[in-house]
Specification:
Shape: globular
CATH architecture: 3-Layer(aba) Sandwich
Radius of gyration: 17 Å
CATH topology: Rossmann fold
CATH superfamily: NAD(P)-binding Rossmann-like Domain
Number of strands: 9
Largest sheet: 7 strands, parallel
Number of helices: 7
Number of domains: 1
Oligomer: single chain
Helix content: 40-55%
Strand content: 15-25%
CATH class: Alpha Beta
Order of helices and strands: EHEHEHEHEHEEHEHE
């Protein structure tokens, strides 16, 4: 895996650019030469991130309700109008509910996780499909969790939502012509963000994947070096 692969000039959209992982991924893609288009709920948040990244005209930050079909379509149309194309889509929208036995967990938790972890995948992949298919370098990357393949009783809703998002991604991959666009999954246990390090100096996180490693994996999957990988899972988890 060549973490230094070039993405010069490629337009890569990030759904869910806020939080702990999004800024690290945006910085990594920008460092590889990509034009980074980030979407999150608040415009102030994406504007602040844009100033932090210092990408200038290679940054486009928008406030987008990623659970709304019309808002997602408008985001896509705006990017195509500005840049002429979209070459990649990274899904980082997160959310968690759990910690109770499945027969006691409120069904409202499932409703929330369905909206955040499944519906956003469905809307963004459908909206950007034609752009990715026509790109010549089209890439979709989903960041998922080990729980999707190894569910526990206390995280049933979360695991089921992640598993559904993975199944959707694999079906999305199956729809791309051989040698064309790709869709793949990066699998983690939990992510160690720069904020977590700053708030817990000296603390060890032995089972956590550093956000920088996730960003490197995403950059590679977006590169020409990963052109032959489609419908795969790239595990960044402890054995």
């Amino acid at each position: 895996m060549d973490a230094g692969a070039s993405l010069d000039g490629r337009v890569i959209a990030i759904a869910g650019v806020g939080g702990g992982l999004g800024p690290v991924v945006a910085a990594r893609l920008g460092a590889a030469g990509a034009i980074v288009a980030g979407a999150n709920r608040g415009q102030e948040e994406v504007d602040a991130l844009g100033e932090e990244l210092g990408l200038g005209k290679r940054w486009d930050g928008r406030a987008v309700d990623l659970t709304d079909v019309d808002a997602v379509a408008a985001w896509r149309d705006g990017l195509v109008e500005r840049f002429g194309r979209v070459d990649g889509l990274i899904h980082l929208v997160g959310g968690w509910r759990g910690g109770q036995p499945l027969h006691e967990e409120p069904l409202a938790d499932w409703d929330l996780l369905h909206r955040l972890l499944i519906r956003t995948v469905q809307l963004t992949t459908r909206a950007f499909h034609d752009q990715l298919a026509a790109s010549g370098h089209g890439r979709f990357v989903l960041v998922s969790a080990k729980q999707a393949q190894h569910p526990s009783n206390g995280n049933a809703a979360y695991a089921a939502a992640k598993a559904a998002a993975e199944a959707w991604t694999l079906a999305y991959a199956d729809g791309f012509a051989p040698g064309g666009a790709t869709a793949n999954i990066v699998v983690v246990d939990a992510i160690l963000t720069p904020q977590m390090r700053a708030e817990n100096p000296g603390k060890e996180f032995p089972t956590f994947t550093p956000a920088e490693h996730v960003a490197d994996a995403i950059a590679w999957l977006c590169s020409d070096g990963a052109a032959e990988m489609n419908g795969g899972r790239l595990p960044l988890t402890m054995p």
